[in-house]
């Protein structure tokens, strides 16, 4: 059950990845991480805290960068299933160019190709959960193959400090507030990956539309779409805004968030602030994402949707064959 998956999520940070073909694992100052959907989320999460360059590639083949940049890079193909066709395409393209490659997957074609190429790979646990819920496994594997010992140490500590059950009440309350509306999640650019994860959880678990944007960009465009007049009031009333506040954000961003919230509330828009709290960036990130999991689950319960599987995605994959 998805509730068990959420409750057990922190235990993923105790996972110790095993790198096969480790003698071929190199270190680089530039990584291209190829992944789609939930399998790309770990890279989004770690990028602001990683002390080397990361290009996140969501798509077929390789990103449109110079050959010189490609030659410097290590391409890491990440797919929980191991069969994501865009990621397989990226791995094959990288190998064809003679680039250094690494694979992270629970099995599938990517693991087969890694063995064929003799490339380093991590075969993460095949637990049957959805990729969006395997974030801990994949993040630990990424930190391991990118040889970031400090990151590994910091996120491993979450296994003992995060209690997923303690965030259910807040998630359930949020679900009651957001029910019947389209969630719009706002955060700082620094927390954009967190906000995007909230959106995905609404989409995949609750099966509802959701939107996301970041400050201060939205202050230059999107907010004007909610400058309500009588003729547009019915449109704006369809949304509920979730502001992910973080005291560690730039002071001007903190002020922008407060003022944006006031402007929205003055126009009768529904706004809820959810603070990112914790002693470390990782605790703030994952406690927030667990709260989002609970909100999405309780929204699903209210709507009567299927909270775990993604049948429309599977239907689409069959159509693409």
From TrEMBL:
Keywords: Isomerase. InterPro entries: Glu6P/Mann6P_isomerase_C, SIS_dom, SIS_dom_sf. It comes from the Bacteria. Gene3D superfamilies: Glucose-6-phosphate isomerase like protein, domain 1. One of its GO terms (biological process) is carbohydrate derivative metabolic process. Residues 21-151 form the SIS domain. The keyword RNA-binding does not apply. The keyword DNA damage does not apply. It comes from Candidatus Azambacteria bacterium RBG_16_47_10. This is Bifunctional phosphoglucose/phosphomannose isomerase. Belongs to the PGI/PMI family. One of its GO terms (molecular function) is carbohydrate derivative binding. It holds the Pfam family bact-PGI_C.
């Amino acid at each position: 059950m998805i509730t068990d998956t959420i409750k057990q999520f922190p235990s993923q940070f105790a996972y110790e990845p095993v790198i096969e073909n480790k003698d071929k694992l190199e270190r680089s100052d530039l990584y291209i991480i190829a992944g789609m959907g939930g399998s790309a989320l770990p890279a989004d999460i770690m990028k602001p805290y990683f002390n080397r360059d990361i290009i996140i590639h969501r798509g077929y083949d390789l990103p449109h960068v110079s050959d010189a940049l490609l030659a410097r890079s290590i391409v890491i193909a990440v797919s929980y299933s191991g069969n994501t066709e865009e990621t397989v395409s990226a791995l094959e393209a990288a190998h064809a160019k003679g680039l250094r490659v690494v694979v992270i997957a629970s099995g599938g074609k990517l693991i087969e190709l890694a063995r064929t190429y003799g490339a380093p790979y991590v075969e993460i646990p095949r637990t049957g959960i959805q990729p969006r819920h395997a974030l801990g496994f994949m993040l630990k594997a990424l930190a391991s193959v990118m040889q970031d010992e400090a990151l590994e140490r910091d996120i491993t500590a979450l296994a003992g400090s995060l209690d997923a059950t303690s965030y259910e009440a807040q998630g359930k309350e949020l679900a009651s507030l957001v029910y019947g509306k389209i969630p719009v999640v706002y955060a700082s650019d620094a927390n954009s990956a967190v906000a995007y994860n909230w959106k995905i959880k609404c989409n995949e678990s609750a099966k509802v539309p959701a939107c996301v944007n970041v400050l201060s960009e939205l202050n230059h465009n999107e907010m004007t779409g909610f400058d309500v007049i009588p003729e547009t009031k019915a449109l704006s009333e369809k949304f509920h805004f979730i502001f992910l506040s973080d005291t560690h954000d730039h002071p001007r961003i903190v002020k922008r968030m407060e003022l944006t919230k006031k402007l929205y509330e003055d126009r009768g828009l529904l706004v809820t602030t959810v603070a990112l709290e914790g002693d470390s960036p990782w605790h703030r990130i994952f406690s927030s994402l667990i709260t989002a999991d609970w909100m999405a689950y309780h929204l699903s319960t209210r709507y009567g949707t299927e909270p775990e599987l993604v049948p429309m995605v599977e239907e689409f994959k069959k159509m693409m064959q």
